[in-house]
Structure formats: C-alpha cells, structure tokens
Amino acid sequence: METLMKAMVYSRYGPPEVVQLRKVPKQVPRANEVLIKIHATTVNRTDCGFRSANYFVTRFFSGLFNPKVNILGCEFAGEVEAVGSEVLAFKPGDRVFGYDDSAFGGHAEYKVMAASGALAVIPDGMDYIHAAPLTEGSHYALGNIRAAKVKAGDTVMVYGATGAIGSAAVQLLKYFGAYVVAVSNTKNVDLVKSLGADDVIDYQARDFTQTSRRFDFIFDAVGKSAFGQCRPLLKPKGVYISTELGKNSENIFLALVTPLRGNRKVLFPLPAINKADVLLLKSLAEQGLFTPVIDRQFRLEELVEAYHYVETGQKTGNVVVGVHRS
Ligand SMILES: NC(=O)c1ccc[n+]([C@@H]2O[C@H](COP(=O)([O-])OP(=O)(O)OC[C@H]3O[C@@H](n4cnc5c(N)ncnc54)[C@H](OP(=O)(O)O)[C@@H]3O)[C@@H](O)[C@H]2O)c1
To answer: What is this structure's pTM?
Structure first.
C-alpha cells in the first residue's frame, strides 16, 4: 500500500500562496538513490525564483507553462532512511545534508536523491538546523569566486555581504586568502566583521563608490549595483560579477562584450555544485572556516510566511524551516 507524506506542493507559478500543504505519495529509492527523512530545509532565493518564474528564462528549465517539479526546497538536512541496492556510500541512519536544484523536494517530509549527487554526511556535532543552509548561498559564492580566479592577496569588495550568498562569500574569500571589503548597512557592520571582513563600508553612512581602494574583484552578491558605477573602483584587469541580470539584462550583454577588450570586465557565470564542492563546504564547516548565518526559523506548515519574509529581500543570511522535529 502507498505511504503518504506531508509536503508543500505547488502546481502553478505565482505568489507564495500557490504553495499548499498536501499529502503526497512517499517515494521509494531506486537502486542508486537514498531516501532522506528531512529534518530541516531552507526557503531561499532559488526556491522563490522557481516558484514565481518572474524571470521568464527560468521556465526553460522549470517548465514553460506550469512547473515540472511540484515540491521545491533545494537545500536540506536529514537522516538516511533507506538506500537502493547499489548504494555503498550511505547507510540508513546517516545524518546528511545536500543540495538538489533539479528534483528539489526538500519542502516535504522525505525526498529521494542519487547517492552520487551533492550529498554528504553532516559535520560531527552540527545539528540539522545549522546543516541545512550549508550549500545554497555558499555554492553560488564559490562558483563566482572561482570564475573571478581570486588569488591570495587579491582585494575584493563584497556588496550585499549579509545575504545568503554575500555572507558565504566573505567567509570563502577569507579562506582563499583575499583582503575583503564588505558593504553592508549599519545594523550589520558587526556581523560582517565577525564573518572575517577586513574592512566594512556602511552604505547608509557613506557612498561605497567614494572609497579610495581599488579592487581585483567586485562581487555584488545582491545585484543592486551596476558595472558602470563600480568600473572606476576596479584595477585595470579587475572583474565585476553581479548575481542579478541588471537593468535591461545588461550584465549578460556586458559579459559577452567586456572580455573582448582585455581590461576591466564583467562575468556572468552559472555556478553549479557537485559532491566535491559539498565535501569542501563540509570540511570548511568542520574547521570553523564557514558557518552559515541563520536568520528566522519557520515550520513546514508556515512556508508561505517564510516565502513572504524571504521575498522582502532583507533576510540576513538564511531562513531555515524545521520539518521533522529532531
Ligand atoms: N544568479 C543566480 O543563479 C542566483 C541564484 C540565487 C539567487 N540569486 C540572486 O542573488 C541575490 C542574492 O541572493 P541572497 O539569497 O544572497 O539574497 P538575500 O539573502 O535575500 O539578501 C538579503 C541581503 O541583501 C542586502 N541588501 C538588500 N538591499 C540592499 C541594498 N540596496 N544594498 C545593499 N545590500 C542590500 C541586505 O543586507 P543589509 O541589511 O546589509 O542591507 C540583506 O541582508 C538575489 O538578488 C537573488 O535573486 C541569483
């Protein structure tokens, strides 16, 4: 007989209210998959993007008219409940965390996933609430830092240093040996310093473009600046990356054109994540070099409220959702 589980389901694109609590069949893992009992997940900007489909281009991945995947939640932490016959890397009872932005499924009591995917055992001593937000913002940060080829000693500005991506970027850039200047608002100055920023520009107290410093890399982690505005702050071979398309999608165009000129350029990478990345993030968490910032916590049944909060664009770090009580 089919077993049912609770899940937050959506079947059409739209505002947070398109997501509703339903009972759906619990999946059975295939030979190469694990079944994970989800203890914690997050609501992040990736989930928001796939739910709203406000950027039409995302529909080429998620379904042109209606979503192909009906349960979002790309980031999760939980316990392996069962494994397929070919799985050797995990066993029932393993505490795991991971990322899945093709099948999603974290906004439910259970999800299945290929054992070879972006999945790893949770660092010793870390609870599910802290393990769930280890991957989303951090892998975007990691992908962009790698694209910019950041080296030890480079001077980097992180604009929007307290979002999920920005707060991970500050910590990862310190790991790569960069000198980090973070831009944040007044109330978050102490937070970004605690993440390791070498210097902080409070954008409410002064215009960040007036700094006399010059940068190898400007990473706008919240997509609120423009290349034209930041260009004078770049060193001659400096790189600008924004996590947003920019006005009239200019960052795509600039990423095609500016590298041809050979000096200050815009890049627009599409970061991906694999098992090696998850293992790196795990190792950094174990060494105390990366700790995801956690803002509010919600329950699975409160997902609509969580979406509304995340879509204010003002969360600090990550919004975590408790599913099964641990
Ligand atoms: N390209 C991709 O594949 C991709 C994937 C995921 C997300 N994104 C985009 O990446 C961006 C960041 O995502 P996220 O989850 O890290 O964001 P987030 O957590 O929602 O960012 C919230 C933070 O943004 C800061 N902020 C808001 N308005 C600001 C402003 N005008 N100037 C400076 N900082 C401001 C706030 O910091 P303060 O309180 O210090 O102001 C707040 O802490 C979003 O725009 C999202 O759509 C892109």
So the answer is: 0.97
**CA-nearest residue, atom 11 of ligand 1:** 222
Q: What are the Cα distances from residue 244, in Å, to 14, 251, 262?
A: 20, 8, 23
6 lines ligand 1 (CB under 6 A): no
Residue nearest to atom 39 of ligand 1 (CA): 185
Tell me the pLDDT tens digit for each residue of 51-98: 999 988 889 999 999 999 999 999 999 999 999 999 999 999 999 999
Ligand 1 pocket test, candidate residues 72, 188, 203, 222, most atoms within 8 A of CB:
222
Selected from 3.90.180.10, 3.40.1710.10, 3.40.50.80, 3.10.450.50, the CATH number assigned to the domain covering 4-135+274-322 reads: 3.90.180.10
CA angle 241/244/246 to nearest 5° reads 90
Q: How far apart are CA 109 and CA 105, in angstroms?
A: 9
Q: Where are the domains of the chain?
A: 4-135+274-322, 137-267
| Ligand 1 close to Cβ of residue 242 (< 6 A) | no
Question: How big is the CA angle at 162 (ends 213 and 172), to the nearest 5 degrees?
Answer: 70
d(CA 236, CA 225): 19
Q: Whose CA is nearest to atom 48 of ligand 1?
A: 243
Q: What is the pLDDT of residues 242-277, one digit of tens each?
A: 999 999 999 999 999 999 988 999 999 999 999 999
Structural domain 137-267, CATH architecture? 3-Layer(aba) Sandwich (3.40)
Q: Does the CB atom of residue 137 touch ligand 1 within 6 A?
A: yes
Q: Please tell me the distance between residue 316's alpha carbon and the centre of ligand 1 in angstroms.
A: 9
How many angstroms is it from 5 CA to the middle of ligand 1?
Answer: 33
Token pair listed for 241: 């990356």
